[in-house]
Every structure is written in C-alpha cells, then in structure tokens.
Design brief:
The chain has 111 residues and is of the alpha/beta class. It contains four helices and six strands, in the order E-H-E-E-E-H-E-H-E-H. The chain has helices at residues 11-27, 50-54, 72-87, 97-110; strands spanning 3-10, 31-37, 39-40, 45-46, 58-61, 91-94. Strand 1, helix 1 (11-27) and strand 2 (31-37) form a beta-alpha-beta unit. The longest helix is centred in the first third of the chain and has 17 residues, at 11-27. The protein is globular.
Amino acid sequence: MKKILFIASIYPFLDGFEKNNIKICQQMGMKVYTAANILDTSTNIKYSTTNIDDLGVQKFNVDIHRSPFSLKNIMMYKKLKKFIKNEKINIIDCHTPIGGVLGRLLGKSTG
C-alpha cells in the first residue's frame, strides 16, 4: 500500500483545498497522513480539524512557522524526516510557501 503525506503550514489549508485530493488518494487505496499546525502559537488559536478527522487520516501536528528565517522550521524538518522514514512514506504532497519548501527538501533527502 502506498503512503502519502500532505504537508501545509496550517490545517485550514488542508481542509479548504486538499480535502478532495485526500479523498481521491484514499479511493486509490493509499494510506493518507497530514502534517500541519493544529495550534497557532502566536495567537494561541486552535484550528479546527473536524473535516480532516472525518476523512479518517492520521494527523501529525508540526509547528511550521510561516517565516523562512525561523529556526523552529529546522526542528520541524528533522521531526518530519524521522516521521517519513519511520512510516515509509512514498509520496509527499506539499503546499503553502514554507510547507512546500520543507516538503521538497524532505523529498530530496529521503528519496
């Protein structure tokens, strides 16, 4: 079974723009994982993940910062790299500016 990881900075993006793609991947027999912020640490607002929960995907909370200069993104890169290797993810689907950069770097480093 193929495994796919959708990466975005925040869960509302996945909910608003990737829900149909997630459903398509599931219909193709893929196991779907998502990685994004559940909590906005700057405002302490918790994002709703109800629609993603309804799809039955595995969520991975990562504290991706929107600033490309944030050192916390390096920690998220390492955390995601370990996750990708442990779960043997085959496909990375990346969105949003920083999520996209992290996803592309992770794809290159994990093969």
